[in-house]
Design brief:
Elements (H helix, E strand, L loop, with lengths): L2 E8 L3 H21 L2 E7 L8 E7 L3 H9 L2 H4 L3 E9 L11
Antiparallel strand pairs: 1-3, 1-4, 2-3
């Protein structure tokens, strides 16, 4: 299946993010266990960029990615202000042979 790069931009709601982070991470671990999530991690906040995350996802198409990540507890709690989904074609590394 294709690989997609998903980015999240988080709202400036640290208390809500902290409260629901354990549930969010449990959700992501479930996706990892089923083979949908390949990797994920936070994107650091700095003067030019709000906090966010990068997720690499194995899915049949963008619609499937959107449907999957609509169920993220962070989405439910409205702390994701922007989500992008883009096809990603690795040419070097552990997922390169999938292209």
């Amino acid at each position: 299946m294709p690989i997609f790069a998903v980015t999240y931009t988080y709202a400036d709601k640290p208390a809500v993010l902290d409260e629901f982070r354990p549930e969010h991470r449990a959700f992501l671990r479930g996706l990892l266990d089923e083979g949908t999530l390949l990797a994920s991690g936070p994107l650091a906040q700095d003067a030019a960029n709000p906090a966010g995350a990068l997720l690499l996802v194995d899915a049949p198409d963008e619609a499937a990615v959107a449907l999957t990540f609509d169920a993220d507890p962070f989405a439910r709690e409205n702390v994701i202000t922007r989500r992008t989904v883009r096809p990603w074609a690795p040419v070097i590394g552990p997922w390169a042979d999938r292209v």
